[in-house]
Design goal:
Blueprint: H1 3-24, H2 40-58, H3 64-77, H4 79-87, H5 99-119, H6 127-131
Helix pairs in contact: 1-2, 1-5, 2-3, 3-5, 4-5
Length: 132
C-alpha cells in the first residue's frame, strides 16, 4: 500500500470518528466555541457532518480532491476553537488541561491541513522528492 493511500485511509478513519463524536456529543464542544460564532450548537453539528462527508469523500476517487481541500479548509476554520481551548484554559472533562496536550495539538494543526491535501492527491510533497 502506498504512503498516500495509507494516509488517506488513516485520515478518513480519524475524521469518521471525529464526525461521529461531534454528532453524538455536541455539548462537549460548545465550551471551546469562540463567542463570535453564531448558533454554536448548530455549527458543531454541521462540523460533524462535514467531517463525515470529508471522510467518505476521501475514499471516493471522483470526490477525493474536493474532500481533501474541504478537510484542509475545515482544519483551518476550527483552529480558533483550538486556540480558545488552549489559551483560555477551558476545561473539558475528558481532555487534559496541560500544555503537554495543547502545545502539540496546536502545532499539529498545519500538519493536519497538509495531510488532508496529501491524502487526497492535491499535493505530493514530500513523496515527489522521495521518488527522485
Amino acid at each position: 500500500m502506498s504512503l498516500c493511500r495509507a494516509s488517506r485511509w488513516l485520515l478518513a478513519a480519524f475524521y469518521l470518528a471525529a464526525g461521529m463524536l461531534h454528532l453524538r456529543r455536541p455539548e462537549a464542544f460548545l465550551p471551546i466555541m469562540p463567542g463570535w460564532v453564531p448558533a454554536p450548537r448548530e455549527i458543531v453539528l454541521l462540523t460533524g457532518w462535514a467531517e463525515l462527508a470529508g471522510a467518505c469523500g476521501l475514499l471516493i476517487p471522483q470526490l477525493r480532491k474536493a474532500a481533501g481541500i474541504g478537510l484542509a479548509l475545515y482544519a483551518l476554520c476550527v483552529f480558533p476553537a483550538n486556540i480558545k481551548h488552549a489559551f483560555e484554559g477551558v476545561a473539558i472533562p475528558s481532555l487534559p488541561q496541560s500544555w503537554w496536550y495543547h502545545g502539540p495539538r496546536l502545532a499539529f494543526q498545519p500538519v493536519l491541513i497538509w495531510w488532508a491535501l496529501f491524502a487526497a492527491g492535491v499535493i505530493d510533497w514530500p513523496a515527489r522528492r522521495l521518488r527522485r
